[in-house]
Amino acid sequence: MAIFKHLFLVLSLVPLVLSYPFFPPTCYSKVLSMARDLTQMAADLKRGHETSYCMAHMPDLYLDVHNACVMYKMRTYISLVEVLRDRRCAYTREVMKLGYTLRQLFIFMSEKCHGDLVFTIYDCAVLERYPGY
Fold first, then answer.
1. Percent helix, percent strand, percent coil in the chain, to nearest 5
2. Which parts of the chain are coiled coil (predicted)?
3. How distant, in Å, are the alpha carbons of 66, 73, 114, 123, 127 from that of 119?
4. Buried b (16+ CB within 10 A) or exposed e, 54-67
């Protein structure tokens, strides 16, 4: 009976071990994927049926984590999203998620990954020209 318990334990753990990612995401890869997701999310909100009305005046959001101006751009965009509260679409789940995730990325970049990130350029005009994804 003990052999069956050990066999069951081994057979139940093998799929867990094989499905686990071999390399955990680094701070850089986490920031890079979050920035891409946020750029796409903001573009989708500008085109969305429910949110295009109040997101039309918002600037395009392009987050290049290699640009030193990205922190300023994120602070500005967070404050613009917070001002949307007096408009109807500010209370939609997507807009609230955009603001929350943007704040999360800002904290992640400024506090958690502060020593791991290297800004290679300092050109704020590049962030204003939205190259798209």
1. 65, 0, 30
2. none
3. 5, 14, 11, 10, 14
4. bbeebeebbbbbeb
Give the confidence band of 21 by pLDDT, cuts at 50, 70, 90: low
pLDDT at position 132 over 70: no
Residue from 66, 90, 67, 65 nearest 80 by CA? 90
Q: Which amino acid is located at 115 in the chain?
A: G
Q: How far from chain centre, in Å, is Cα 55?
A: 18
pLDDT of residue 22 exceeding 50, the answer is yes
The model's pTM: 0.73
Q: Which residues pair with 121 in a beta bridge?
A: 67
